[in-house]
Known about the structure:
The protein is α/β, with parallel strands linked by helices. The chain folds into two domains: 2-45 and 97-204, Ribosomal protein L4/L1 (Ribosomal Protein L4, Chain: A), CATH 3.40.1370; 50-90, no CATH class. Helix content is 34%, strand content 14%. The protein is built from seven helices and six strands. The chain has helices at residues 20-23, 29-43, 102-118, 135-145, 160-166, 182-187, 195-204; strands at residues 2-6, 12-17, 122-125, 150-153, 172-175, 190-194. It has a six-stranded mixed sheet with strand order 2-1-3-6-4-5.
Amino acid sequence: xxxxxxxxxxxxAGSLSLKDDIFGLEPRADILHRMVRYQQLKAMAGTHDVxxxxxxxxxxxxxxKQKGSGGARHGDRKAPQFRGGGRAFGPxxxxxxxxxxxxxxxxxxKHALSAKAQAGELTVVDTLLTKAPKTAALLLQFGKLAWxxxxxxxxxxxxKNFALAARNIPHIDVLPxxxxxxxxILRRDRLVLTKxxxxxxxxxxx
Length: 206
């Protein structure tokens, strides 16, 4: 498939042919869902914790006779049913990460790229170079290009001035090609790729 290439100034910069096996697939919601779940679970800290009965500070002395009290046969005050006792079946630090085959993860990225291309939410620019790190000037350019909510992906090396100017703009994410991922692609209304990013993606899936 062919796509029009633009510049940061909004000028026409020719066209580019995109590979159909990366940008022309029929998006599958089930694969995208699996990948989003994989990323979100992997990102969870898993640091939630409560004190169980073995970690309590209350006495471990048997406070009532085993027989003759007319009540239950308790051992100590750290049991979950007592005030100040340990929590039964509470959360403990653990990893929430799940496994997902490498081929499925690669396929999910292709489907995310294809979904943006199919919806007309994919833009290709020639370069992302700015003379000075001026947020106001970059914001004006984004306004002309209608980039109000976008993920911008460049090649291996980001232009320092562009990255500095864009980092304070709300709803705009700028990443090198190594950081491209399904969740960030889907959470933004527009995906912007440079020519260098397209070449890196095609080389990655070659």
